[in-house]
Amino acid sequence: MAVLLPSLAVGARRLHDTGRSGSWLLINLIPLIGAIILLIFKVEESHDNINQYGPNPKI
């Protein structure tokens, strides 16, 4: 339980880096398929420019 909130926060930040809303974390509720889709979203490259969530943290 102590790991749940930080994991959600990190997941939402990572999705924001790729230009997606943090609500995409809810797709993880779909067994297997949701986890695969979320994994694909998380390993994508961040946007190079500024998105609605702020500047790219790599730059």
TrEMBL record:
The keyword Glycoprotein does not apply. GO terms for cellular component: plasma membrane. Coiled coil: none annotated. The chain crosses the membrane at residues 24-41. It comes from the Bacteria. PANTHER family: INNER MEMBRANE PROTEIN YHAH-RELATED, INNER MEMBRANE PROTEIN-RELATED-RELATED. This is DUF805 domain-containing protein. It comes from Paenibacillus sp. SYP-B3998.
